[in-house]
Specification:
Rossmann fold; 2 domains; six-stranded mixed sheet; globular; binds iron/sulfur cluster
């Protein structure tokens, strides 16, 4: 059942815009950033519908649906992402759509554990959040740049919405050129397209709750995921401007190891909803959480802060790093 009135008109306008952009006379591939959250799910849903609405000989541009796995994702979220990508993949093959699903991951030497244990970095915190760039931005950026190298230019579709947050609204205003496509600030050859920019949260939910995905099934699992996780989401992060929304104090899906947040409300929500097996992950995350600097003795605090500053600027060696583990533990035997 389609939503009625104002929302159906807005969705119809978005569908027309997507179709018009796809029909442009060039072959630049589309890359859809997929976080498994509601906004990027809606974008993939509408893109899939756009392809189905076109005649087979009009589907000339490749569409890559790209998710990133930090390798320390919340287990239920990463399972959901894998399941949806498999469904999309299956349906795309059956319909012969030019869709490719991809999961990017951090380079082997940039994973959470390599940096935490191997390099001895402190657990990420607001002042030194080394993780977002290495585990989220770089893997997906690398994939995008590979596609730019192969095709000359790509169009990146993001489920960004102006009303998502004050910060997001400010970023949108700062980089908006008034056109449908904006040049990406950090990725040459990448144009950014935000088809659902003007939708609000209620509209996104109303659509997802009433219109089944074109690849089959329903969006019920997504709705349940949000309900169980106290409404959390970690969005696709593809630039340093977006990074502050990753690991904030609001309830968000994110890495289960995330110590940038005081409490992992989404994982707590999953445990409260009956997924007791994730209780030990919560306890381990709390154990990783560095003690409040206010409780460290002043002398030790200043040494720690100085080392952390030097580490951030690259002026410190691994063995000196102020991480959670001793150098002897980190050094090879
Ligand atoms: S969710 Fe937390 S640990 Fe994961 S990349 Fe974001 S800030 Fe870092």
């Amino acid at each position: 059942m389609e939503p009625q009135d104002a929302l159906s008109r807005r969705i119809a306008a978005i569908r027309a815009d997507l179709e018009d952009e796809y029909r442009q006379p060039h072959r630049d591939p589309w890359i859809v950033g997929f976080s498994g959250g509601k906004d990027s799910t809606l974008v993939v849903h509408l893109v899939f519908e756009t392809l189905l609405a076109l005649a087979p000989d009009e589907r000339r541009r490749a569409v890559h649906v790209v998710a990133n796995d930090t390798l320390v994702e919340s287990p239920l979220v990463v399972a959901h992402i894998r399941r949806v990508l498999a469904e999309i993949d299956h349906a795309a093959r059956a319909w012969r759509l030019p869709v490719r699903t991809v999961i990017t991951r951090p380079a082997e030497d940039q994973t959470f554990w390599v940096n935490l244990i191997g390099r001895g970095y402190p657990t990420p915190n607001r002042m030194f959040r080394w993780c977002t760039d290495r585990m989220k931005i770089q893997p997906t950026s690398r994939y995008i740049l590979e596609q730019v190298a192969a095709s000359g230019e790509v169009i990146l579709l993001l489920g960004v919405r102006r009303s998502e947050s004050v910060t997001r609204g400010q970023n949108v205003r700062r980089y908006d050129n008034g056109e449908r496509l904006n040049r990406h600030n950090d990725l040459p050859g990448c144009m950014v397209y935000r088809p659902i920019l003007e939708l609000d949260t209620d509209e996104v939910w109303e659509f997802l709750a009433t219109v089944p995905p074109p690849w089959g099934g329903s969006h019920d699992a997504l709705i349940k995921l949000y309900r169980d996780a106290n409404g959390g989401e970690c969005p696709v992060v593809l630039s340093r401007d977006d990074a502050p929304s990753c690991g904030t104090s609001s309830a968000r899906f994110g890495c289960w190891t995330c110590t940038v947040v005081e409490k992992d409300r989404s994982l707590e929500g999953f445990v409260e909803a009956g997924f007791k097996e994730f209780g030990p992950l919560l306890e381990f995350r709390d154990w990783l959480q560095p003690p409040d600097p206010a409780f460290r003795p002043p002398a030790r605090r200043s040494v720690h802060d100085r080392q952390e500053r030097r580490l951030r600027t690259g002026a410190v060696h691994v063995g000196d790093a102020p991480g959670n583990s001793r150098a002897s533990f980190r050094s090879p035997a």
